[in-house]
Design brief:
four-stranded antiparallel β-sheet; 11 strands
């Protein structure tokens, strides 16, 4: 059974930074999602094998998704963190082929998920 493993979560003060990592191999479509208590899972950022990306509006300009093919690792660099960024963050991946410009932030686009890593931002 395929399992993605996230790392890099933790507790920081508002304005701080964290970098999440997820080991990925053989996937064409990868993303980060988050879920806060009592809320639905929401897309944060997505990247496809062509390098096209898309971000949730509230994180654009603060978060950066990237893929290091040499290390088979997906990253989410999170800067200027806010208390409302507090959530469990999940790595997601999929192997179905997509057009180079296709970037859709929807959980339905992904077949494989990690267990999550907690990010807590205090004010």
């Amino acid at each position: 059974q395929v399992q993605l493993v996230e790392s890099g979560g933790g507790s920081v003060q508002a304005g701080g930074s964290l970098r999440l990592s997820c080991v990925v191999s053989g996937y064409t479509y990868m993303g980060w999602f988050r879920q806060a208590p009592g809320k639905e899972r929401e897309g944060v950022a997505v990247i496809n094998s062509s390098g096209s990306t898309s971000y949730k509006v509230s994180v654009a300009g603060r978060f950066t998704i990237s893929l290091d093919n040499a290390k088979n690792t997906l990253y989410l660099q999170m800067n200027r963190l806010k208390p409302e960024d507090t959530a469990m963050y999940y790595c997601a991946a999929d192997r179905r082929p997509r057009a180079s410009g296709y970037v859709v932030l929807s959980p339905q686009e992904f077949d494989y998920w990690g267990q999550g890593t907690q990010v807590t931002v205090s004010s």
